[in-house]
Amino acid sequence: MEKKKFYITTPIYYPSDKLHIGHTYCTVATDAMARYKRLQGYDVMFLTGTDEHGQKIENKATEAGVTPKQFVDNIVEGPRGVKDLWKLMNISYDRFIRTTDDYHVSAIQKIFKKMYEKGDIYKGTYKGKYCTPCESFWTESQLVNGCCPDCGRPVVDAEEEAYFFRLSKYADRVRDLLVNTDFLLPRSRVNEMVHNFIDPGLDDLCVSRTSFKWGIPVDFDPKHVVYVWIDALFNYTTALGFMNDRYPDSDYEKYWPADVHFIGKEIVRFHSIIWPAMLMSMDMPLPKHVFGHGWLLLDGGKMSKSKGNVVDPYILAERYSADALRYFLLRDFPFGTDGNFSNELLINRINMDLANDLGNLLSRTTAMADKYFGGTLPAEQAEGPEDAELLAMAKALRDKYEADMEKYAFQNALADIFAVIARANKYIDETAPWVLAKQESDRPRLARVLYNLAEVLRICTVLLQPFTPTTCVKIFEQLGVADELKTWDSAANFGAMPATATLHKGANIFPRIDAAKELVELEALEAKAKAAAAPAEKPAEKPAAPVAEIGEHEPEISFDEFCKVELRVAEVRACEAMKESKKLLHLTVFDGERERCILSGIAKWYKPEDLVGKRLPIVANLAPRPMMKGKYVSEGMIVAADTADGGCSIAFFGEDVPVGTRIH
Length: 664
Ligand code: MSP
Fold this sequence. Notes:
By secondary structure, the protein is of the alpha/beta class. The protein contains 22 helices and 25 strands. 41% of the residues lie in helices and 17% in strands. Strands 3-2-1-11-12-7 form a six-stranded parallel sheet, sandwiched between helices. Strands 16, 17, 18, 19, 22 and 25 form a six-stranded antiparallel sheet that branches. A four-stranded antiparallel sheet has the order 5-4-6-8. Strand 16 (567-577) and strand 17 form a beta hairpin. Residues 536-552 have low confidence and may be disordered.
């Protein structure tokens, strides 16, 4: 019988910088899903890749003094680049597409032409803000103080000829798709798309540019290059041989439409509105699902290379193993919503679940089998009253796990497994094998206790394979599990392992981490990596401004959420430079009720004497933050804007605004 197929994709990543933990998160989730489907016996196609065109990459290459292709080659194929990272993280992709691959380029040209010939792409005029020296168009929201975000010079209103896709034509069909089917998941994302984008009216979409060169030329009008989204979105089909000869047509026939595209929430609009509309225009089947996952945040804000606050997955995976990092990412954060990343959470999770619960269960079980039976359990075994609950949980586990995995609820699937593991540890305490071992007459009972533990471990390990594949091999080895007992079917068959199983104790699968020591070392390592990555005199030295970089937007929040941020006018009572840091000023501010200490990274731009007596905006309800190894506690934050020349500017209030006034 032909195997059922499953096609899953990650977004294609911009190789404008090294990838960080947020990108790793999405790829790890996709990998877990792909491995899970393979475990179930599906014929899986797992696609990932890189989105290599566009102005940003062109600019970065110019800065680096190399061609755009050389620039992206280095980030994708170079040392510690994208492919190396996926290798380190044990990502089992079947295909890797680069949008600069020839077959993709020619297919995109054909697709563009087909939509043009159909009348769904037409020539029009693109209007925007233009920086003449940089030859770049910007949108209003990207400008900084009304000027070019790159060079800080004034911009002018300008127009250029461009091709547009008739997105508006498909608005009703797309609306219907979103509202009346489960195309877009989680469901909670549907309202936002419909109310914010479709209902106010969809504008046609600009799909070509003449103001930069690094893109796929429109072959019938070569001064235009295809503007990123047609190029990017169709990767999901060109990688299957659609309109090209690189892969057999049969791959497209076989795998398209995709079962699910995993993507981050900020590109849900492109995947749930623009992508289906383009496929409708091409008369192609639509993917079954698009799942918009949440972001990993750092200190509550978005990670971004330009803010210098990214977490390097390399450091973490090399230090704690890819499996530990994979497990943590999918166990700690619900896939559909945002989560706050921290090293502390990571280390606690490794210690609690992997070293304590799983690691101990395995080492206790195998050590006791070795000690009491020389490794091989005897055939004579006796059931006992403590067995029922543990066995019931283990027998129900696969179905429960499956239900969660089908909903992409990785966190719950892992919680299910670890509930059984915790129960098994409790079972050891209840049955007290070391007491049973004292009486010859209790040996059959002792053998059954160890057998049950080994079976529980086997079933849990089968189901952990999509998450921690390397460790699972080691566990199976210690339990002596034959290949046919590592399968999906066998996970629903408690008791499948022969009674006379042979176990042996091996190395600790997850050594316990000394959290306090490790946190300090990690911080130092990350600071070192950050310093090495940051260009001289660059943002690492700027205050940790709570504002988004140009062109980046924080996730949308409700008015009520905004109201939770308590912004107040405070008066600077004292201000001093700090001997411990050249970057920081130590301010004592009065917030209308009390004095508080704030350490702010503005020393480069403000002298203490410029600030004393001034009234300025602070975030008053920020959790106090110990700094300088706990010597100071900073109790708030000064609100400031980045200036176009890389400096910082505080908006001061006049004496007519009373100290303590709330800012709305
Ligand atoms: N190239 C486009 C995608 C085109 S897909 C046809 C792109 N690239 S990206 O590199 O900027 O982002 C790729 C993915 O990484 C997005 O899904 C984005 O949400 C995800 N992440 C980037 N930072 C992230 C976090 N901090 N947390 C989780 N995912 C995040 O967009």
